[in-house]
Amino acid sequence: MGKTLVYPKQVSNTVNRLKDRATYDLGAIHSIINSSHVLHVSFNPAPSDPFPAILPMIGQMGSFDYPSASIDEPLDCYLHGYVSSRIMNLARASEGEGLPICVAASKMDGLILSLTPHNHSYNYRSAILHGYAKLVTDEAEKLWAMELITNSVLPDRWRNSRIPPDRVEMSSTVILKVRVVDGSGKIRDGGVHDDQKDADNAEVTERVWTGVVPVYETFGEPIPSPTNKVKEVPEYVGSYVAKMNDQNREYATSAVEEEH
User: Fold this and answer.
1) 215 and 109 in contact (C-beta within 8 Å)?
2) What pTM, to 2 d.p., does this model score?
3) What residues have CB less than 8 Å from 30, skipping those under 6 apart?
4) Hey, what domains does the chain have and what are their CATH numbers?
5) Per-residue pLDDT reduced to its tens digit, 158-179
6) Residues 6+ apart with CB under 8 A from 21
């Protein structure tokens, strides 16, 4: 059995509260990032601006140099954006290692309904990455990253669309490559946890329903666009929808029985 690779604990990524829920495993953290359709990317817009900027972006973990690298190996984070956006301009102007950024992702898996408001919670998975972002300038790597990110929207979508991108599309699209320096994750699963004083209080236990409401992302039936000329929904689209609905439901319901 191979060794589990972990991110080093540093001031920026060490979990201080409920440390038993923390994970520094590359595989767990990268999986949360890759399964999140929206990543929240924060950065400092200017030294004179007191507020950090946070952008919702599309991204994916991967390695251009080692494309066969697995999810639990060191990977870069590729982010998709528009050529003139603020974060791209800052990354373009950055010197040295690149633009310092934080990438965050979270998924909710259940509502924890306890006897008291104090013990209400969620089942969830969250992850953060810290790293330095630079623009991808090599055209081969840029195309590879664009395919990686497109297929993260829906597997095999790149091949089943009009490719390659034309000059206008290539020039208007920018890919950020984040060299990750640290990361951490936090996972809560299981059921209700109540204080003994409340669990022993018959007046409370006989009046208050407790339990878990599983929460999971559901994909609906594909709806063709008004200009669509393909009669049937492609198998790769329909099978993905069915697979993800089953997978998401299974995870949320099984998380109730797990204890991380």
Assistant:
1) yes
2) 0.93
3) 61, 71, 72, 75
4) 19-216 (2.30.110.10)
5) 999 999 999 999 999 999 999 9
6) 15, 186, 187, 188, 260
